[in-house]
Write a structure and sequence with these properties.
2 copies of one chain form a homodimer. Chain A has 432 residues and is of the alpha/beta class. In chain A, 34% of the residues lie in helices and 17% in strands. The first copy, chain A, folds into 2 domains: 233 residues, 3-Layer(aba) Sandwich (Rossmann fold), CATH 3.40.50.450; 151 residues, Phosphofructokinase domain (Rossmann fold, 3-Layer(aba) Sandwich). Chains A and B meet through helix 6, helix 10, strand 11, helix 11 and strand 15 of A and helix 6, helix 10, strand 11, helix 11 and strand 15 of B.
Chain lengths: 432, 432
């Protein structure tokens, strides 16, 4: 007897997140003897709690196929709502919604926090006698899921695309900086990635031979504004220009202070009263450059995680495969696993897909390996490049256009009939 | 007897500026009976003053062809150096350099200021008995060359590409905002374009049917932060989310104060201690949104004028043609003209190329037509869309990749032999 499926996304989107959704959906729709209707949690777990379940089985093959080139999470939405361990009521609501909709499979696309949530839901379902296979699908441009030894996962879907975004953005920035350095000798660009340096590190892929005056500032390098200023002026003295790539999570008291925070307690860097890039631009301009002209700053923000035009073909395929793998794990009768990407040994890039226990992922932490920071502190090593280079692939992703505008997935608003009483998630209730 | 050629670029680059250079170069190299060696002013007029003349005739056909997909001004450089009318010494130096290098043709790629400079050089050459044809080639992403009646020029090369950049950036931003609005309901994005609204206006091309909660803030609309805040909250109340596109030149005393200025006296918005986007984000967050979550900001900066990946095919072809036209005007014996793009009448888009007197362009000013501002003040009219839509074209520009990295023009550093005494441009001399 087939049982229904819920798939939901959590946290910040990526250019290829919808490919994991597509992988789940394709596999479920091909195995009707096991999977019933497939519902998408409308805006992630919030949609599950509010019983807003988008009926993905009712959507056209055309719109599902377009998920391939649809960036971010516009198709079914995401959220930052956190199912806190203390909010038992929320967990019980999830189980209730699943039970009433005869849900036997729950696929949760997200980072470490989401794997933890999926694991807790899986355990509670068992406790409550609900037959539920909860499976995790990794996603984050930050590449911070799993462990630092890359045993649980080699890299997360989404990272290859943001790396390719930065490869191309820095290639273009170099043309700009080389061309207009007589007036704007210093270009400061701020990347996402929080305090983990995988994203700013990827800028080096633009210039693997180190021919350009490109300085990388990873939070992990522990640099001060003074040290960056000195290095910028040294670079200007030698080359007349400099490009500084700085991670948004570079430690600055003035950015931390007054910063906005999301439901997970994480600083929302782009909603803060001042950005790291702005602080650095001001510091450089106030303390002086050793050549005429100014430092200028830019912050592409969410463009880097929505940049389907610059996405990696490798990442796109892998994101799909990992979604397929999660559904295959369910078909095999597995539960409480995260579908993962593991790299094959050898100098030719290749991966295989597997399952790893959710609780192991939930209890792991990934940092940027210290050994990949160059001695100069303003660069990464060739070992990092060897790791990251295959992830960005070779070719362009071709996005279909209609009258010159990109054609993205537009699902019809067909929702599952409501069967549960109304509910306000604990975290969304007005303070007493 | 052929005479040599100098071509130089001025001001901020565009994704297709090198196509105008290619148009000049292609035409000169095909007409050797008239054009001798072709030199590029290394970093624009600064290179002419310093007698740094890159020998473009000595470059390979391969590198010249790659100018087609090489954004910004990395190939020969640009500058913001202004030949001020009071700096007669600089003008005489230009004439001296041209005379010693037997330069008979000067092509200057830039905006209104550059057309003024080219005109003054043309007049001085005549005065000094130097046979020189000075010709202007329009370029600016801001679309602010010529007059507001579009009689001198319909649109500038570069504008179509930045318009297409914003079409795609806002399409992606809408996926992000729709997907993650439960935590980040307001996305503020800052465009270039100074105080002229053509660039923020182009964001509307992403949503010509006005289906999205997209608010455009052109400096010309004369809006206050209070009015924007009220409109954002009204939009949030109706749609739960909002995207605000704001031009960098939106009038704010806190941005003007302490702002850095370039040699033309223009504010350098991206080098300022605070940006318009940041001020707006802070105002919205401080004064409160009527839904949970925060406003976040982003500033793609020079990425929008280097974005060859998102460039317009129409713009790219036109930028080349206008360069060709300038060289053809020279072949016809014309001088002191700007090659221009004029739109044919009728509902099917078509242009023709012509010459208009430099002095007319130099004395003209273009503003965003008031009639194209919507009554709501947060939008532009369909007449604007009818004007702008053809400029963004249909297809993707395909950028060649080598090992996954974009392959841009790399000229060999072959410079003309120096024949003049060393010279420091007036504006670059240390203060007395």
């Amino acid at each position: 007897m087939p049982r229904n499926v819920v798939v939901a996304q959590s946290g910040g989107p990526s250019p290829v997140i919808n490919n994991s959704l597509r992988g789940v959906l394709d596999t479920c729709l091909r195995n009707r003897e096991r999977f019933g209707r497939v519902y998408g949690g409308w805006h992630g777990i919030e949609g599950v709690l509010k019983e807003e379940l988008l009926d993905l089985s009712a959507q056209s093959a055309e719109e599902i196929a377009l998920l391939r080139v649809t960036p971010a999470a516009g198709a079914i939405g995401t959220c930052r709502y956190k199912l806190k361990h203390s909010q038992q009521e929320d967990f019980e609501r999830v189980i209730e919604v699943f039970r009433r909709h005869e849900v036997g499979y729950f696929f949760y696309i997200g980072g470490n926090d989401s794997m933890d949530t999926a694991n807790k839901i899986s355990n509670l379902a068992r406790e409550k006698g609900l037959e539920l296979a909860a499976l995790g699908i990794p996603k984050t441009i930050d590449n911070d899921v799993g462990d630092s030894e890359f045993k649980l996962i080699d890299h997360t879907p989404g990272y290859g695309s943001v790396a390719r975004y930065w490869l191309n953005a820095i290639a273009v920035a170099n043309e700009e900086n080389a061309g207009s350095c007589t007036s704007d000798p210093v270009l400061v660009v701020q990347t996402m990635g929080r305090k983990i340096g995988f994203i700013p590190a990827a800028a080096r892929l633009a210039d693997p031979q180190r021919e350009w005056p490109l300085l990388l500032v990873l939070a992990e390098a522990g640099l001060s504004l003074e040290a960056i200023h000195a290095q910028v002026n040294e670079t200007l003295a030698q080359r007349g220009r400099a490009i500084v790539v700085i991670g948004e999570g570079f430690h600055l008291p003035e950015v931390q202070m007054g910063a906005k925070r999301d439901a997970f307690g994480h600083v929302e860097f782009s909603a803060s009263p001042i950005t790291v890039a702005q602080v650095l631009v001001n510091y450089l301009n106030d303390h002086g450059l050793c050549v005429p002209g100014h430092a200028r700053g830019q912050i592409p923000g969410t463009d880097q995680r929505g940049g389907i035009f610059l996405a990696s073909q490798v990442d796109l395929e892998e994101a799909h495969h990992v979604g397929v793998k999660a559904a295959e794990l369910a078909l095999e009768g597995q539960h409480s696993q995260m579908a993962t990407i593991l790299r094959r040994r050898g100098s030719i890039y290749g991966v295989h897909y597997a399952g790893v226990p959710l609780h192991e992922v939930a209890n792991s932490e990934r940092t940027f390996p210290k050994a990949w920071l160059a001695k100069s502190k303003f660069d990464v090593t060739d070992d990092f490049l060897a790791y990251a280079r295959p992830l960005v692939g070779q070719d362009w992703v071709s996005v279909p256009l209609v009258d010159g505008r990109p054609r993205f997935t537009r699902f019809k608003p067909i929702f599952a009939e409501k069967k549960c009483p109304p509910y306000v998630p604990v975290g969304l209730r007005p303070a007493p």
